[in-house]
Each structure stands twice: as C-alpha cells, then as structure tokens.
Write a structure and sequence with these properties.
The chain has 105 residues and is mainly β. The protein is built from two helices and four strands, in the order αββαββ.
C-alpha cells in the first residue's frame, strides 16, 4: 500500500538516518504506539540499490521493509503510519482501517 505523497530520494539522502518512522495501531479500541525509530535501523537504501544490480530508471519506487513492532506483531482494527523529517520540517502520514474477513472452511 502506498500513501498519497512521496519524497525525492535526492532531498533526503544526506539525512536518511535521521528520519523517524512511526506507527500507531488501534487494538481493542485503544490507539497505541506500535513502531518508532530512525530509518538508521533499516537497510541503507544505497546498499539496496547497489544490490539491485542495474541502474534505476526515473520514477522508480523502492520499498525496503520496516522496523520491529513494540510488543510484537498483533492484529489491529486500524493502522496509522508516518515518516517525520525534522531536518526539512515535514511529515507524511497514511492510515487505514482493517477489515477482518470471516474464516471459511
């Protein structure tokens, strides 16, 4: 799932490790901090691009995972996520409701 905004890598490359990834999950009606930490905890994007083995073309999007969940992975009714860039004083956020499908056997 992609949110409605993107940042150009060239704009954040020099301070990638300072950007904070954060999420909240609504579990049993309570909004709780689910993940939080600097992107330094994730694989460096330049390393990922190098491992790709060929140059990226314009408008390429790289998805590179996430950080560990506080208290472990668990189901939630809602999930809200954000990236906070304190260097450029901006933030992007996205959220969604979870619809649990019935188990059919």
């Amino acid at each position: 799932m992609l949110g409605g905004a993107l940042w150009r890598f060239e704009d954040i490359r020099a301070h990638w490790d300072k950007i904070v990834i954060r999420s909240h999950a609504t579990i049993d009606g309570e909004r709780t901090l689910y993940q939080e930490g600097p992107l330094a905890l994730m694989r460096d994007p330049v390393d990922l691009m190098t491992r790709y083995g060929r140059p990226f073309v314009a408008n390429t999007i790289v998805m590179c995972g996430t950080i560990g969940a506080k208290g472990g992975i668990r189901p939630a009714a809602r999930f809200d996520m954000e990236l906070e860039d304190a260097v450029l004083n901006r933030r992007m956020a996205h959220g969604y409701e979870v619809v649990t499908l019935p188990v059919v056997s």
